[in-house]
Specification:
Blueprint (H helix, E strand, L loop, with lengths): L2 H7 L3 E2 L2 H20 L2 H16 L6 H10 L10 E2 L1 H23 L2 H21 L3 H13 L3
Antiparallel strand pairs: 1-2
Length: 148
């Protein structure tokens, strides 16, 4: 295997500070969505999770905000983090936001509130304690399937 082939098989790396910042934005959006039962805000979050989960967290709106506005102002270098855990977490967030969107459009309060609360708690853990619940689930799945 050549060096080029090895580097092509390595996972993409991201700045590990980015997911914490984007979780903080998510926390604000989900908190406001919960308090106002805003279809618009949950759709905004659904877009974020869709792009972050199925394209790349770097290309999602909050990731762009981080890279363009916040990261240039941070001092020091960082050790890159494997993108697969945060991207999986975005996919889990997508499922919660999709359920909340369905709940919003059908006026089923519990179908809106419960997924928003779960996603809010996960965002809180990441924003406040730098603990990515989705990333940990991703690692457990990888260990269970021996693909790590």
């Amino acid at each position: 295997m050549t060096i080029k082939e090895k580097s092509a098989s390595l996972p993409e790396l991201i700045d590990p500070r980015g997911p914490r910042v984007t979780a903080s934005i998510t926390l604000i959006v989900l908190g406001a969505a919960f308090l106002t039962h805003s279809t618009f805000l949950i759709l905004l979050q659904l877009i974020q999770f869709t792009i972050g989960g199925f394209v790349s967290p770097k290309k999602a709106p909050y990731g762009i905000i981080y890279r363009k506005l916040i990261q240039p102002r941070l001092a020091g270098d960082f050790i890159g983090e494997d993108i697969r855990g945060p991207q999986f977490a975005q996919k889990v967030g997508f499922l919660f936001a999709a359920l909340a969107t369905i709940g919003s459009f059908t006026n089923v309060g519990l179908l809106f509130n419960i997924p928003v609360i779960f996603a809010f708690v996960a965002a809180f853990l990441n924003a406040a304690f730098d603990y990515c619940l989705g990333c940990q689930i991703y690692l457990l799945i990888q260990r269970a399937t021996k693909r790590l």
